[in-house]
């Protein structure tokens, strides 16, 4: 079931001639569990194309959850009518409770989707304002230098800086709505490369979040790992970085390092991931990601 998060609230204000900062109209209060991720994590280099990709994947995934719960509600409603005709009161009231629970969850999903769309709309507005101010700044810089043009350049510079700060702020707010990735270790695949007694270390990083686990190939070719699952908080700017090393006594031998994008993980079904650790694909890593 999709994890829900405290919603990002923003108050609506009438537009005035003097442009006010987005941060003055919004209050970002990330959950305590993510405060360590937010602290000092503001990136003063907005990436509109990446944000657009994440937004589209996120909205698609949320709509999948909405459709699945709507289908469940339709099914329960049909059972509810049949039960009412058959007068099985105990089962009827149990179904009624289930229907109300699903209806509440659907309302939460709809609100979640609306907040994500609202944030992205505000982000696009700031992006267009920044592009306009940047183009005007370039035009003024090519014109003869006068007191008026220098004042205009200074004002445009402040506008670009303010739009950039607002875009970064909205990116941080959007991350609060991305949910969680539950990553499960499914083992290494290596055919002849994996032998009984071999020991490996897998290191998975997503931004500041890290997961280090060790495994061993047993005599029956099965694998034992000291950890099986880790929760990661999605990040707008970072990709998964996976590093595999072989442990031989006190020595470590690098097997390979790969990166993995998370765009395909925003879906209702668990995603089976097979990553080529070596260039020739002689050793692969199998993971399962549930959003």
Protein architecture, described:
It is flat, with a radius of gyration of 25 Å. With 291 residues, the chain is of the alpha+beta class. The chain has a five-stranded antiparallel beta sheet, with no helix packed on it. It has a four-stranded antiparallel beta sheet with strand order 7-3-11-10, with no helix packed on it. It has a two-stranded antiparallel sheet with strand order 1-2. The chain has two domains: 48-176, no CATH class; 181-290, C2 domain (Immunoglobulin-like), CATH 2.60.40. Helix content is 43%, strand content 24%. The model is unreliable at 1-21 and 27-43 (pLDDT under 50).
Give a short synopsis of this structure:
Belongs to the RIPOR family. Residues 12-291 form the FAM65 N-terminal domain. The chain is α+β, with helices and mostly antiparallel strands and 291 residues long.
The description of the largest β-sheet is: 5 strands, antiparallel
Radius of gyration (CA) equals 25 Å
Q: State mean pLDDT (0 to 100 scale).
A: 83
Strand order of the largest sheet: 6-5-4-8-9
| End-to-end Cα distance | 8 Å
Give, in order, the helices and strands: EEHHHHEEEEEEEEE
Q: What are the low-pLDDT stretches, counting only 5+ consecutive residues below 50?
A: 1-21, 27-43
